[in-house]
């Protein structure tokens, strides 16, 4: 943990938002009560939590390799061009030289150790419910030269018209940030403003008060969806891909960030290969996959137009005429010739 | 306070409730979790909607509906009790008219409750066939949080607008409601004698706070009873209970693009669903090296 440090909050112990699983906890996939309690307290108080070494580095490296196989050929220019195409488009801009990709949950990105990781689930389920759902599954890549993002929340407070309500509500969604490479401060990790999940709308964060630390492969950051944060500038020569998995209460839907895209993008075939124990957070992904199938099945289906009596089927004599005239069928299109 | 609010023909024609009507309706919805707006839609609009319903589903008798409803998902027809089916409506013909899904009387009333950026979540119909028994009392969706000190006191997050396509008397089986139950806790027992129900005429609509306990009453008539349900919610609300594994908002993409830009945000989920079909690997081919 010596490599981690807190920035610009010198008076505050850096460790209080960092909870590292022990080797035993990692091996068992289960937190001891004290560690779990500390993690929940940190997330409630700060709206952010850093969990070092939750994922096996071999899994992270496999994901990075998979990422390179899919996207290495997209330099910043190609990614910009892709992001400007009309929907449906898996790439959206998130600032200069920074792009969000909705990627298929397959290959290394389809491993239960990732999206149904037991240590992660152990933290999340008590906070947002055992029936929490994976809302989205995307990668944000910053290219060398990417400036700092605007400071933002992933989503504003609920019930925005009642300003006293939202900041006091329990958490409704948590963004799990998983870097695919070691991220030094110059590569640009995610900077956060601890405690800002409770700030009312309209309070501006001061850039100088950002908190950040280097991230290692295997670490993940958990952000209350209301916490103010930013992607720090990428002053390195490396492309920096970070995976974002958003888990939420079943009723939450983020159409501010994931409008018109199919996220999480999991095929029916891949869903069926997921072991039973890991399927719980994938109900929404399954629904999406089934809706895709419904759409595909109906792609060639003729629309039964009101003006086309051949498609009406059997209509009762006293029913309203399907042509929309307002008359009974027997007095309109059902009248004997 | 009465939960039945009469909308005058001039208010319906103007697309706006008079201040006194609106105040009465708001107070009633806050207190009861339910209001009945008498005459909110012109009867001709309802006739046209019924025509469209018959066009889309009129050929399906009870046996066929049952057969269709038990097919595996994705399935636009879902059983919601014996002889009672919830179907996703194709938003074409009368169901694609803005005076139906973006009705000015309704939107003007709902926006202050759900936010200017509210979304239409679903557009479906529930048909009860002759012989359908009464439903169990239920909420369309539970409180958002399980903590008893939090949830029942939260502002409203979604409203179900029930529009009967035929006159529904007590024999045909309207929707029975337990007034005030939107503020009850998660586990609450209700008694039949506390249920309120009103006959509905074509042009009426019921607005239900999504937390209000209600039940479809038995259909003891000889008529099929279709009721259209339009669920409007806050931008961030998603109904993960009633419409899993199917598309609940089915507007052709071409029709979406024809909507005025001011109306499209209301229908943006229809756009998202329509986009699903066009999502292909080819949209962004892999480019490794």
Report on the structure:
The complex is a heterodimer of chains A (337) and B (289). Chain A has 337 residues and is an alpha+beta fold. Chain A has helices spanning 23-28, 33-46, 57-71, 76-83, 112-115, 118-128, 268-272, 283-297, and strands at residues 48-51, 91-93, 98-102, 133-142, 173-179, 190-192, 220-224, 229-231, 240-248. A seven-stranded antiparallel β-sheet of chain A has the order 1-7-5-9-4-3-2. A two-stranded antiparallel ribbon of chain A has the order 6-8. The radius of gyration of chain A is 24 Å and the shape is globular. Chain A starts with 22 loop residues before the first helix and ends in a 40-residue tail after the last helix. With 289 residues, chain B is of the alpha+beta class. In chain B, strands 1-2-8-6-10-5-4-3 form an eight-stranded mixed β-sheet. In chain B, strand 3 (77-79) and strand 4 (84-88) form a beta hairpin. Chain B is globular. The model of chain B has no long low-confidence stretch (mean pLDDT 93). Classes of the chains: A alpha+beta (337), B alpha+beta (289).
How does the SSE layout of this entry go?
The complex is a heterodimer of chains A (337) and B (289).
Chain A: H1 23-28, H2 33-46, E1 48-51, H3 57-71, H4 76-83, E2 91-93, E3 98-102, H5 112-115, H6 118-128, E4 133-142, E5 173-179, E6 190-192, E7 220-224, E8 229-231, E9 240-248, H7 268-272, H8 283-297
Antiparallel strand pairs in A: 1-7, 2-3, 3-4, 4-9, 5-7, 5-9, 6-8
Chain B: E1 4-6, H1 9-14, H2 19-32, E2 34-38, H3 43-57, H4 62-69, E3 77-79, E4 84-88, H5 98-101, H6 104-114, E5 119-128, E6 158-164, E7 175-177, E8 205-209, E9 214-216, E10 225-233, H7 253-258, H8 268-276
Parallel strand pairs in B: 1-2
Antiparallel strand pairs in B: 2-8, 3-4, 4-5, 5-10, 6-8, 6-10, 7-9
Outline:
The complex is a heterodimer of chains A (337) and B (289). Chain A is of the alpha+beta class and 337 residues long. In chain A, 23% of the residues lie in helices and 15% in strands.
């Amino acid at each position: 943990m010596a490599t981690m440090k807190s920035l610009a909050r010198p008076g505050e112990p850096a460790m209080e938002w960092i909870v590292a699983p022990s080797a035993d906890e990692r091996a068992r996939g289960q937190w001891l009560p004290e560690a779990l309690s500390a993690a929940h307290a940190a997330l409630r108080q700060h709206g952010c939590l850093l969990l070092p070494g939750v994922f096996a580095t071999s899994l992270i490296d496999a994901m990075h390799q998979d990422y390179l196989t899919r996207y290495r050929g997209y330099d910043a220019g190609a990614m910009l061009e892709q992001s400007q195409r009309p929907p449906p488009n898996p790439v959206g801009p998130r600032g200069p030289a920074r792009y969000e990709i909705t990627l298929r949950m397959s290959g290394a990105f389809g491993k239960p150790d990732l999206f149904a990781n037991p240590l992660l689930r152990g933290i999340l389920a008590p906070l947002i419910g055992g029936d929490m759902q994976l809302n989205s599954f995307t990668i944000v890549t910053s290219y060398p030269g990417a400036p700092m993002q605007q400071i933002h929340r992933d989503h504003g407070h609920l019930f925005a018209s009642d300003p006293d309500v939202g900041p006091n509500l329990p958490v409704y969604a948590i963004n799990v940030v998983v870097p695919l490479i070691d991220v030094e401060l110059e590569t640009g990790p995610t900077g956060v403003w601890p405690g800002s999940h409770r700030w009312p709308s309209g309070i501006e964060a001061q850039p100088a008060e950002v908190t950040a630390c280097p991230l290692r492969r295997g670490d993940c950051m958990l952000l209350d969806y209301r916490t103010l944060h930013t992607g720090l500038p990428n002053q390195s020569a490396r492309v920096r891909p970070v995976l974002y998995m958003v888990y939420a209460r079943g009723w939450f839907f983020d159409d501010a960030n994931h409008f018109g895209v199919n996220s999480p993008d999991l095929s029916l075939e891949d869903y069926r290969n997921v072991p039973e124990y890991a399927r719980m957070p994938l109900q929404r992904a399954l629904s999406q996959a089934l809706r895709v199938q419904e759409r595909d099945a109906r792609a060639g289906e003729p629309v039964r137009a009101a003006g086309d009596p051949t498609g009406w089927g059997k209509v009762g004599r006293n029913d309203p005429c399907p042509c929309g005239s307002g008359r009974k069928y027997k007095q309109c299109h059902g009248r004997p010739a | 306070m009465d939960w039945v609010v009469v909308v005058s023909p001039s208010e319906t024609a103007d697309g706006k409730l008079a201040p006194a009507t609106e105040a009465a309706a708001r107070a009633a919805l806050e207190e009861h979790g339910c209001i009945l707006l008498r005459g909110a839609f012109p009867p001709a609009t309802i006739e046209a909607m019924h025509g469209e319903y018959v066009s889309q589903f009129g050929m399906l008798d009870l046996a066929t509906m049952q057969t269709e409803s038990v097919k595996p998902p994705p399935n636009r027809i879902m059983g919601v009790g014996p002889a009672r089916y919830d179907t996703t409506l194709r938003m074409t013909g009368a169901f694609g008219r803005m005076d139906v899904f973006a009705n000015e009387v309704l939107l003007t009333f709902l926006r202050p409750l759900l936010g200017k950026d509210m979304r239409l979540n679903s557009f479906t119909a529930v048909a009860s066939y002759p012989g359908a028994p009464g439903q169990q009392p239920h909420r369309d969706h539970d409180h958002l949080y399980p903590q008893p000190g939090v949830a029942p006191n939260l502002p409203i997050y979604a409203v179900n607008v029930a529009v009967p396509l035929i006159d529904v008397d007590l024999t045909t089986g309207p929707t029975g409601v337990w007034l005030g139950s939107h503020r009850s806790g998660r586990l609450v027992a209700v008694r039949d004698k506390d249920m309120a129900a009103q006959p509905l005429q074509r042009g009426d609509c019921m607005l239900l706070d999504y937390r209000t306990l209600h039940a479809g009453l038995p259909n003891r008539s000889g008529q099929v009873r279709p009721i259209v349900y339009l669920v409007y919610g806050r931008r961030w609300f998603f109904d993960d209970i009633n419409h899993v594994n199917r598309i609940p908002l089915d507007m052709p993409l071409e029709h979406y693009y024809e909507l005025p830009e001011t109306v499209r945000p209301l229908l943006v989920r229809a756009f998202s669903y329509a986009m699903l079909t066009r999502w292909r690997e080819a949209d962004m081919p892999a480019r490794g090296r």
